[in-house]
Design brief:
The complex is a heterodimer of chains A (507) and B (368).
Chain A lengths: L1 E10 L2 E12 L4 E5 L4 H4 L1 H11 L8 E7 L11 H11 L11 E3 L2 E2 L5 E2 L4 H10 L4 E5 L3 H4 L6 E5 L2 H10 L9 H4 L15 H13 L3 E4 L6 H7 L9 H14 L13 E2 L7 H5 E2 L4 E2 L1 H4 L4 E4 L7 H5 L2 H6 L1 E5 L4 E5 L3 E6 L16 H9 L3 H4 L4 E4 L5 H5 L7 H18 L13 H8 L3 H10 L7 H17 L7 H9 L13
Parallel strand pairs in A: 3-4, 5-8, 8-9, 10-17, 10-18, 11-14, 14-17
Antiparallel strand pairs in A: 1-2, 2-4, 6-7, 12-13, 15-16
Helix pairs in contact in A: 2-3, 8-18, 19-21, 20-22, 21-22
Chain B lengths: L4 H8 L5 H11 L2 H5 L3 H6 L5 H12 L1 H11 L4 E5 L7 H4 L7 E6 L7 E6 L6 H16 L2 E5 L5 H11 L4 E4 L13 H6 L4 E5 L11 H12 L2 E4 L7 H11 L3 E4 L7 H11 L3 E2 L3 H8 L10 H8 L4 H9 L5 E2 H8 L3 H14 L2 E5 L2 E4 L4
Parallel strand pairs in B: 3-4, 3-7, 4-5, 5-6, 7-8, 8-9
Antiparallel strand pairs in B: 1-2, 2-6, 10-12, 11-12
Helix pairs in contact in B: 8-9, 11-12, 16-18
Classes of the chains: A alpha/beta (507), B alpha/beta (368).
Chain lengths: 507, 368
């Protein structure tokens, strides 16, 4: 007798539907599984045999074949235990094969019969829904994610016994949502807690308003990390689409305890020993990297020059395209990776260059910066120096503007940009093409002359020029101005990006 | 100035040290005289070991040595000066442990030339850069020749100053004269042979090894009549050169600085110990010419009042210093708007009164 159960496997951030088929026939007593299986899926055979035996259905000494179709897609993940067990049950005649023909089944089994949660449940359920399935049997711990899929009736099971009870009687045990998961501590840093630092504050505001990548440099203890942690708090609240995208990523990473309501703009700050694969994603069993975990949020790299060169170079494509394509010998996947890139560094090894306190030699300073490639340095529109806070600033709290007030201005600037770029494929000034930005800036003759005057003494490259225009457009948007004026240009010039030539002045 | 192969091989070889070479020259007068003798005669003098001699003979006959000889003299500027030569600097004959031969790219100083050494920190401040360039230039204008080590920082700027004035300048290297170290001084490395010389005790092909530099320093102070220390930290190499100069009986002058500046700590200490104080470049030159020093130097005062600046520009200029200072600090001090301040700073940069040394950090500059 042949039986079929619907299940799924994850590929990148999307899922593919898989059908588990089982057949029991005469022949040598074998339990065989086929269908391009990865290690953890092959092992499912032993778990299913034990759990079925414990539930009172010892496998007969017959030839049992389980096929996971389609055969050309590699199946990986821990969710195949339940569908395989059910298809074998149906093949044995214990269950009506049509009973679960329109139900999506997924879950891992322990030998005790307990059902464990599965990574990537949300993308699988969304794929199931697209395929017209309206009912699913899933582990209890995955119920949160199922609630995000519209028009889908989830049946949560905590053990194999509960599953059997549901099949026989249709009864479902009620699970109340886990209270613990709701109570996420609000640990987001707020600019109100930051003392002084007026200039870096302003740089953050511009960065968030135009989604400009930001590089901070300054001596140790000047609050670079603290400032970066505050950044997500001035970005607009997540939209529903963004939230769903993030939930999918968390689902794949097995973060079951984050609930939809409590989801925040991500702030990722990987350590500088992070490898290129951990940064970009990939690995033996494909995992999203730090850049994908930072999707729709902030990726903060502290001590930028200490990072491995390959890890930094891996950022270049995602910074341009907002996504990453990972090709390995067995798979080719695309993960979203659209993040605000914020980095912090010391200007030299001791941290005090260019002040006279610096004790580094010129070659050491040059060596320190040479770890960051020119193309990567080019990705930063904004650059700002942080300073140690003085005692007076610690006491004077009048300038400690809260994140909420900054966010209001940022939101207004976002609205202006959305309106401006409504028929364009991009949303923010930082993404606008060089050709168009000059048009959007609406420079007057006087402003043009001002640019020439301010930057006459430097060799301003074409790229540097457009970068300054983009940033000044954002500054003008923050001020609510239609045209970019001289003061906006001047401020953009002040925040202009760090240039390698500054390190080469010393000779 | 073509040299015989014997002389080249003798100067280049590393089989013998300086003392052995000197002893051999005393015994045999010239390299040709040495190479012409039999092994037995040479070993009989008991100056070098048998192994060294056999290696030397092998080197002498090798194709590599011939190749090096041809290559070195393919450049007409290159030459070798032996201690017994007419053009060998007299001052260097009399220092402790004098060099046996000097590799020269350019022309060695004339007997009548007055040589002044300028040394200082590699990582110097805007103040040091400015004054090494200025003093180097004015020395050259007054007929002195500037001797230095072509290192980064003060050394390089001193050479540049002298070159700017079209004067002579001599660079003693810690590597062979065929190697440009540091690479960022390539511009002066190429200019110096045409108005002075690159001089090295080390044979061509020698890299800039750490142990070469103390040897090189003794030549810088040894050849010069006075040594100027422009900027030096406490316990720095420049102070060692100054000590060496004192041992060799040379005059030492130092440029004073504020007591808070680590880069002036060494020079201030020298002045405290009795070195001459460089109060202005003109007073220095008068002192070097053995003329009466003027009592008051009005040089800097003049410079400030002579600046052709608007009132606002003056305010901003006076906020900056010879040490890097950032725009936002100055903005706090002056209370100007960023736009206005940036405009004034840009104008000052155009006129050459300020120089950007790092992003948004400027130092004072005196337009040349």
């Amino acid at each position: 007798m042949l039986s079929q159960i619907r299940c799924g496997t994850i590929r990148g951030l999307t899922a593919t539907m898989v059908t588990a088929e089982a057949d029991v026939s005469d022949g040598l007593p074998v339990f065989d599984m086929v269908g391009s299986l990865s290690g953890e899926v092959k092992e499912c055979r032993e778990r299913v045999r034990t759990v079925l035996k414990a539930a009172g259905f010892p496998l007969p000494a017959r030839h049992i074949t389980v096929n996971l179709s389609p055969a050309d897609i590699r199946k990986s993940g821990n969710g195949f235990d339940l569908p395989v067990a059910l298809s074998v049950l149906a093949a044995l005649g214990r269950m009506d094969p049509d009973r679960l023909s329109d139900v999506f089944v997924c879950g891992e089994l322990r030998l005790s019969g307990e059902v464990l949660p599965v990574k990537g449940m949300l993308p699988m359920l969304l794929a199931a829904r697209e395929n017209g399935i309206k009912k699913c049997i899933i582990p209890v711990d995955n119920l949160q994610e199922a609630r995000l899929v519209p028009d889908m009736e989830p049946i949560g099971v905590g053990s194999f016994a509960e599953l059997l009870e549901y099949i026989d009687t249709g009864r479902v045990r009620e699970y109340c949502p886990d209270k613990d998961s709701e109570a996420i501590v609000d640990d987001q840093a707020d600019f109100g807690e930051l003392h002084g630092q007026a200039i870096p504050r302003r740089a953050c505001e511009i960065a968030a308003a135009g989604m400009h990548n930001l590089l901070m440099y300054g001596p140790p203890g000047a609050g670079k990390s603290m400032i970066a942690r505050c950044l997500p708090s001035i970005m607009p609240p997540l939209s529903d689409d963004e939230k769903l995208e993030l939930m999918k990523i968390y689902s794949i990473c097995g973060k079951f305890r984050i609930s939809y309501e409590n989801i925040r703009r991500p702030f990722r700050s990987p350590h500088h020993t992070t490898t290129a694969v951990a940064m970009s994603g990939g690995g033996n069993s494909l995992n999203p990297g730090e850049i994908t975990m930072a999707h729709n949020g902030v990726l903060f790299l502290d001590e930028l020059p200490e990072f491995k060169r390959e890890a930094l170079e891996a950022l270049r494509q995602p910074l341009e395209e907002g996504k990453i394509n990972i090709v390995r010998n067995r798979y080719q996947e695309e993960y979203p990776a659209d993040f605000l890139f914020v980095a912090a560094m010391n200007p030299c090894r001791c941290g005090y260059y260019p002040s006279e306190r610096c004790t580094c030699s010129t070659p050491s300073i040059r060596h320190y910066l040479s770890k960051i490639s020119e193309p990567l340095l080019d990705r930063f529109d904004l650059c700002v120096q942080t300073r140690r806070v003085e005692y007076g600033e610690l006491m004077d709290k009048s300038n400690n503007e809260s994140s909420e007030r900054i966010r209001e201005r940022v939101l207004r600037a976002h609205d202006i940009q959305r309106e401006r770029y409504r028929d364009k494929p991009y949303t923010f000034n930082s993404q606008a093409s060089s050709k168009m930005i000059e048009e959007y800036c609406r420079l007057t003759k006087a402003t043009r002359e001002c640019i020439g005057e301010l930057f006459a003494s430097e060799e301003l490259t074409a790229r540097g020029y457009y970068r300054i225009l983009k940033v000044s457009r954002t500054i003008a948007d923050l001020a609510g101005k239609k045209d970019v004026g001289q003061e906006h240009i001047a401020e953009a010039g002040f925040f202009r990006s760090l240039d390698r030539r500054f390190w080469e002045v010393v000779r | 100035m073509n040299r015989s192969f014997d002389e080249f091989a003798f100067a280049v070889t590393k089989c013998m040290d300086r003392n052995e070479k000197r002893a051999l020259l005393t015994a045999f007068k010239t390299p040709a005289g040495f190479f012409g003798r039999t092994d037995k005669t040479i070993l009989g003098m008991d100056i070098i070991k048998k192994e060294s001699l056999s290696i030397l003979r092998e080197e002498y006959g090798s194709r590599l040595m011939a190749e090096r000889y041809r290559e070195y003299f393919s450049d007409p500027l290159n030459g070798i000066s032996f201690i017994y030569d007419e053009d060998f600097p007299v001052a260097l004959r009399h220092i402790h442990n004098p060099p046996v031969a000097l590799f020269v790219s350019g022309r060695l100083p004339d007997k009548k030339e007055r040589l002044i050494a300028m040394v200082g920190a590699r990582r110097c401040s805007g103040y040091g850069r400015l004054f090494s360039e200025k003093i180097g230039k004015e020395l050259a204008e007054n007929g002195f020749s500037v001797v230095s080590g072509m290192a980064m920082g003060i050394d390089g700027y001193s050479h540049r100053g002298a070159l700017m004035a079209g004067g002579k300048t001599y660079a003693f290297l810690g590597s062979g004269t065929d190697i440009c170290y540091p690479a960022c001084n390539r511009d002066i490395y190429e200019q110096i042979p045409h108005s002075g010389a690159l001089i090295s005790e080390f044979p061509p092909g020698t890299g800039p090894l750490k142990q070469n530099f103390p040897d090189r320093n003794r030549l810088i102070s040894g050849i010069s009549e006075s040594v100027l220390v422009i900027e030096a930290r406490e316990r720095s190499g420049s102070l060692i050169t100054a000590d060496l100069a004192l041992d060799q009986g040379k005059d030492v002058y130092a440029l004073p600085g504020r007591i808070t500046d680590p880069l002036s700590a060494g020079t201030n200490r020298l002045i405290w110990q009795g070195a001459g104080m460089i109060r202005s470049s003109e007073s220095l030159i008068m002192a070097l010419k053995m003329e009466e020093e003027p009592l008051v130097s009005e040089e800097l005062e003049q410079a400030l009042s002579e600046l052709n600046l608007e009132k606002d520009e003056m305010v901003v200029y006076s906020c900056f210093d010879f040490y890097a200072k950032s725009i936002d600090e100055v903005q706090k001090e002056t209370g100007m708007t960023l736009l206005m301040l940036l405009r004034i700073v840009a104008a000052l940069c155009c006129k050459g009164y300020l120089k950007e040394v790092f992003m948004n950090h400027y130092v004072r500059n005196i337009p040349v």
